[in-house]
Amino acid sequence: MSQKKRQLHLGLFLFSTGYHPAGWRLPEARTDGAFDAKFLHSVAQTLERAKFDFFFLGDALASSADMQYQFPSQMVRLEPFTMIANIAAVTEKIGLIVTVNTTYAEPYHVARQTASLDHLSSGRTAWNVVTGADARAAHNFSREKHWDNEKRYDYANEFVDVVKRLWDSWEDEAFVRNKETGVFVDGSKVHALRHVGEQFSVAGPLNVARPPQGQIPLLSAGTSERSQELGARFSNVIFTGQIVIDEAKRFYAGIKAKTFQYGRTPDDLFIMPGLVPLVGRTEAEARAKYRELSALLVTDFNLQPLSARIGLDLSGYPLDGPLPDLGLSSRPDDARKFVRLAQDASGHEDITVRELFHYFAATARGHLLIVGDPEQIADKIELWFKEEAADGFNICPPYMPGGLDLFAEHVVPVLQRRGLFRTEYEGNTFRDHFGLTRPANRFAEERELQTK
User: Fold this and answer.
1) What mean pLDDT do residues 319-331 have?
2) What's the whole-model pTM score?
3) Among 399, 444, 391, which Cα is nearest to 17's?
4) 3-class DSSP state for residue 87?
C-alpha cells in the first residue's frame, strides 16, 4: 500500500493589529479589528476561501498599557470561546482553535465548553492547551504567585486526561430517543468517571453529549522538556518558534520520536512553527514595506535585549554604523545565524546596528520573518516542509488585513500550483483537515474487550 503524500498545513495565528509591533500604524492597517465582529468574520472567511486548516486565537490572562510598544495586538482581545462561537456561525469548513490556560481553570468547565463548541461548529473545534507564561496572571486569580513549571505541568497532564475521559462519558449510541417505549437514554452507555487524583476529584458524567469529533484535537506549544512530553503524549499539533532551519529539524525529529513511548506514531503529530510573511507583489515592494514598518517603530533603542540575544554588547556602537566583529560574541555561531536572517530581511549584507535592532524588534516574540515576493515566500515554506523542519506553518501576518490578503491571494496559489497545499477541503471537521481518524469511545472499547 502506498503511503499517503504529505500535505502542507496552514493556519492563522490572529494578531488583530498585526504581528509587527508597528503594523497598526500603517495607513492601510486596521487598529480596532479586535472588537469588530464584521472584521473578524471577514478574516475567517478569507481563510476559508484560501482553504486554510484553521483560525487560531491565542489568549492571556493579564495585561498592561506598557505592552503597546512591544505587543499591542495582545494587550486586549476578546475571550476565545465567545469569539470562536461567533465565527463558527459564519463559516462552514475552517477549523477553529480555542485557547485555555489549565493553570487557572477546571476540567469539567473546559470539557463542557469545548464539547459544546464542537457541536455548534459541527466538529471544527480544537483546544490549545497552555499552562501560562505570564506570572502576573496569578494576581488575577487570588494567588500569590504563578506556579513553577513542574507544578503547572503536573496539573495540566491530569487536567487533560480528565477532560478527554469526560468527552467519552456518553457513548455515541447512548441516546435511544424511542418515542414508543419512552426510553430516551441507554443508561448502560453513560459513564461516571469517579476520578480521584493528585490534582482533581471529578465524578462525571459530563452533561454534554460526546463531541462530533469524538475526541477534540489538542494543540500545545513550548520547548521545555515538560511541554514536549505533554505534546508527545496528547497533542495533534505543536506550535513552535524556531527561526533557523537546522534547529527546527532537530526539534521536529526529537518531538516526533517521543510519540512512541505513548503508544503513538510520528504521523499522529504535526509540527507548525510560526511564520511572519511580509509579502510584496514584487521583492522591491516587500522590502519597501519592511522599511516602512521599521521606521514606524516606537522605541528608545534599548540595545540590552538585542545584545543578550547575540552575545555581544552593542551599547558602545553607533546606531548607523556597521556591526562589530561577530567573532567577539560569546556565541559567535548563534550571532552569525541571527545576523544572516536580519540581512535576508533587509535585502543586503552591510546592515547597521539600527537595522539589526529593527529586525530584532520585529521578531522578538520568536517567529520566523520572511520578506519577499510570493515565489520567494513559497520557496522558504517548501524548503522547510520538504526538509522536515515543519509540517506547515502558523501564519502571523505583520499587519492586518493587508498582510493576510497578500498571502492568501498571492502565496497560497503558488503553493497550490506546486502541489504542496490543497485546492479544496477533503472533509468538514478539524480532524478531517489533518487526516486524523475519529477515535472509538474508550468505555465502549473496554466493554467490548470484557465481553470477548
Assistant:
1) 95
2) 0.93
3) 399
4) helix
